[in-house]
Amino acid sequence: MSKKKMSLITKIMIGLILGVFVGLFFVSSPKIATTYIKPIGTLFLNLIKMTIVPLVFSSLVVGAASIGDVKKLGRIGGKTMIYFFVTTAVAIVIGLSLANIFKPGAGIPLVSSTPQKVTEAPSLIQTLLDIVPTNPIDALAKGNMLQIIFFALFSGVGAVYIGEKGEPYLKFCDSLAEIMYKLTEVIMNLAPYGVFALIVPVIAENGPKVLIPLIKVIGVCYAGFILHSIIAYSFSVKMFSKISIKEFFKGTSTPTAIAFSTSSSSGTLPITIKTVRESFGVSEGIASFVLPLGTTINMDGTAIYQGVCAVFIAQAYGIPLTLGQQATILLTALLASIGTAGVPGAGFMMLMMVLSSVGLPLEGAALIAGIDRVLDMGRTAVNVTGNVAASIVVSASEKELDYTKATIKQSKSNIGV
After folding, report:
1. 179 has a pLDDT exceeding 90
2. Phi and psi dihedrals of 401, rounded to 5?
3. pLDDT recorded at residue 9
4. Quick check: 114 pLDDT over 60?
């Protein structure tokens, strides 16, 4: 009798829990954890980052080519962007509302020193101009995601227009995308060890005390993550498709768990694409277009985190925020979410930008730094869940959601067989 093989999700969670316990063991000597264990986690993240640019580029070229019709591509792109911006705005409102209701920063008397200087958020016009690369090779080398997306979409459509001459290019990109999917699958087999090595130094350096004073912030953020997932994602999926709320959350459990463990929506991308195609029947063209785009600009979990943390820091320093300032936080977070890398820690850098926009003390971010990893896991899981929801909604609106290929529907229908 063969033993049942342990799932990757179970292995990752075991690695996470063991990492916490080992981290507590090294609290008295954190240098050992940072010197000998942290490099293993860094290596794991570097392996993930290695696949990001070629994966995003090749999958978008294939996705644009499979859609073919420029008018259809524009329509799908418009629907996708509207969905992303609406859900992100809702996310920020939820974050600000919960922070104002529960006041996580109340009762923490802090005195601000001179605020540091950070780069301000670029204007909307400048952001739009920067999307078009003057040198696509440079954009690929630097990992500028918005420029890579723009060039990939245009080259994919161009390859379709030139017919047979474009087929070798499309075959190359299709082959490259498949290679990246396979490489990522191999890398994700190392996830339990990578997650273990990433968690140990965080716990060792900060100790359990880092969670105690800020447990309220974590609670408010995670309440926002859960609330937003239910309000914005599951109901929109239910509204546009025949997929139930239970089926949606069950189908997204694998990419969500991996995103939670690794804090990398980019690294989860191949698994997310596989999930929406096999579990929900999303068409290849829409999956290859919506998901890489969402990994770059759809940051709902990050938006909730920024809203809660900005209000928390203001409350901790006794600085009242007007409705106008909170509206500025909303707009800045919405704009800053465009082009943010889907890798661990990116949301924390965005928080600095948001704090600067309303003149809050930047050193207040140090309060968040200690628990940022805990928050990063939750917000990344929400970001990935939002990408899955977007692909389902867009595919359903285009009548390209194939329920006959969805494993969830098949397993349900086979119960009575």
Report:
1. no
2. -95, 110
3. 61
4. no
Is there a contact between 260 and 377 (Cβ–Cβ < 8 Å)?
Answer: yes
Task: Round to whole Å and give the CA distance between 42 and 311.
Answer: 32
Decide if pLDDT at 175 tops 80.
yes
Say how far apart CA 130 and CA 137 lie, in whole Å: 15
Per-residue H/E/C for the chain: CCCCCCCHHHHHHHHHHHHHHHHHHCCCCHHHHHHHHHHHHHHHHHHHHHHHHHHHHHHHHHHHHHHCCHHHHHHHHHHHHHHHHHHHHHHHHHHHHHHHHHCCCCCCCCCCCCCCCCCCCCCHHHHHHHCCCCCHHHHHHHCCHHHHHHHHHHHHHHHHHCHHHHHHHHHHHHHHHHHHHHHHHHHHCCHHHHHHHHHHHHHHHHCHHHCCCCHHHHHHHHHHHHHHHHHHHHHHHHHHCCCCHHHHHHHCHHHHHHHHHHCCCCCCHHHHHHHHHHCCCECHHHHHHHHHHHHHHCCHHHHHHHHHHHHHHHHHCCCCCCHHHHHHHHHHHHHHCCCCCCCCCHHHHHHHHHHHHCCCCHHHHHHHHCCHHHHHHHHHHHHHHHHHHHHHHHHHHCCCECCCCCHHHHHHHCCCC
What is the amino acid identity at position 1?
A: M
Closest CA to 399 of 225, 282, 321, 314: 282
Cα separation, 173 vs 189, in Å, equals: 24
Instruction: Show the tokens assigned to 279.
Output: 């579990």
In terms of Cα–Cα distance, which of 260, 354, 258, 344 is closest to 304?
Answer: 354
Our CA angle for 263, 358, 305, nearest 5°, is 20
For residue 24, give both structure tokens.
């507590």
Which amino acid makes up residue 200? V
Reported as half-sphere exposure (CB side, CA atoms, 13 A), residue 258 has a value of: 23
Distance separating alpha carbons of residues 339 and 131, to the nearest angstrom: 9
Name the nearest CA neighbour of 265 among 372, 353, 204, 345: 345
* Alpha-carbon gap, residue 361 to 352, rounded angstroms: 9
- pLDDT for residue 225 is more than 90: yes
Look up residue 138 and give its amino acid: D
For the record, the structure tokens of 235 come out as: 């109901």
- The letter for the amino acid at 290 is V
Written as six digits, the tokens of 198 are 């990433």
